[in-house]
Amino acid sequence: MSRAPTFLLSRRAILALPILAMGTFAAAQTAHAEESIVVVGQGGSYQEAQRKAFFEPFTKATGIKIIEQSPADNGKFQAMVESGNVEWDVVDVGQDFVLRGRKLNLFEPIDYAKVGIVKSDFPAALVTDYSVPSIIWSTTLNYNTDLVKPEKSAKTWAQFWDVKNYPGERTLPKAPVNLLEIALLADGVDPAKLYPLDVDRAFRSLDKIKPYIQVWWETAGKAEQLLVDGEVAYSAAGQARVQKAARQGAHVAVNWDQGTLTSQSWVIPRGSKHLEAARKFAAFVSSPERQAELAKYIDYGPSNSKAFQFIPKDAELPTTPDLLKKQVLTDPQWWAENIDSVNERLNKWLLQ
Questions:
Q1: Where does 145-212 show beta strands of DSSP type E?
Q2: CA of 277: how far to CAs of 70, 94, 115, 229, 270, in Å?
Q3: Quick one: which of 110, 161, 82, 31 has its CA closest to 285?
Q4: 314 in the Ramachandran plot: left (φ > 0), alpha (ψ -120 to 50) or beta?
């Protein structure tokens, strides 16, 4: 297990999340029927779950309609804000982008007390004045059980790289975050010594697996579909979509060993045309009841500690203690400082 990075939950902190008394969400004033906000998510089954747990109940409670878009694109986000032509109101983004975007003045502030969010209900390491933590998720080694029998499947990233003994088509993310961590773990780096990431070593490791990657997926929904349809035997992608697909009858499974833990947050682009409605939405979806409701539809770990009192103890979430200790914590601060240079190198490398 790696050291706990400054800007993400440590394993000890997650295990110590208190089961607190049930909080209440201060009901927002009824909005004019024609009011709406654009909410941008990641698409696929994650956004389907958000629709049931967040979007539809929010509209019912406030009268504010949700216009959905996906996927969230950091470059487009920044361009909108800098051009002054902001079309989005609330966006679900990675924690590394929260840290970078705050420095670039891309977000509207969110006053927790003013909108009725209890700051102490969330891991302090994930809270900023410009974001509200949403979920904690894991990039795991997943496989199609029609193509790979569980007893013969790869169980570590080193085995994922071993195409001779663990044959089958593979897919990896076309984005550096998590990809470089996986490449280094596959090359034998101790999880406790991942950071600062050895970028040169990571790309040497990626050189070895590159010829065997059928698709470099760009959206989580695409990664899910490739595995479910049997176009690939193995994928490195978010675990929750695979778990949901398995419950719906798809022949897929998750291996938790060496999963890389990451977090998401809600942010409001600076210049949002519906600022108060966007803040109401951020407060609504941050309540423990709403976050527990999301866990009914997709297996992401809630960020609100009070949500756990509404979630069955046998739920398989990334922050479940027995699963948590098998995984590795990513460091969003390292990525906030290095994402641009590494992403440029990755794009050039993919064209070689």
A1: 170-173
A2: 19, 22, 10, 39, 14
A3: 110
A4: alpha
**Domain of residue 152, CATH code:** 3.40.190.10
Query: What pLDDT was estimated at residue 34?
Result: 62
What mean pLDDT comes out for the span 234-258?
95
Please state, as a whole number, how many other Cβ atoms lie within 10 Å of the Cβ of residue 280.
24
The pairs formed by 288-294 with CB atoms below 8 angstroms and a separation of 24 or more are 288/22, 288/23, 288/121, 289/22, 289/25, 290/25, 290/53, 290/54, 290/57, 291/135, 293/52, 293/53, 293/54, 293/57, 294/49, 294/50, 294/53, 294/54, 294/135
Q: What percent of the chain has pLDDT over 90?
A: 82
- Do the Cβ atoms of 289 and 121 come closer than 8 Å? no
Burial status of residue 231 (CB atoms within 10 A of its CB: 0-12, 13-18, 19 or more): middle
- Ramachandran angles phi, psi of 67, nearest 5°: -100, 115
Question: Do 268 and 324 touch, CB atoms closer than 8 A?
Answer: no
- The label of the residue with tokens 């509209």 reads 59
Q: Are residues 251 and 338 in the same domain?
A: yes
Query: Is the distance from CB of 130 to CB of 107 less than 8 angstroms?
Result: yes
Q: Retrieve residue 334's tokens.
A: 């390292």
Considering the domain architecture, whether residues 132 and 211 belong to the same structural domain is answered as no
> pLDDT per residue over 79-113, tens digit each?
999 999 999 999 999 999 999 999 999 999 999 99
Q: Is 149 in the same domain as 130?
A: no
Which DSSP symbol is given to 3?
P
Across-strand partners of 253? Answer: 143
Residue 1 lies in a domain: no
In whole angstroms, give the CA distance from residue 303 to residue 275.
Answer: 23
Query: Domain of 271?
Result: 11-136+263-318
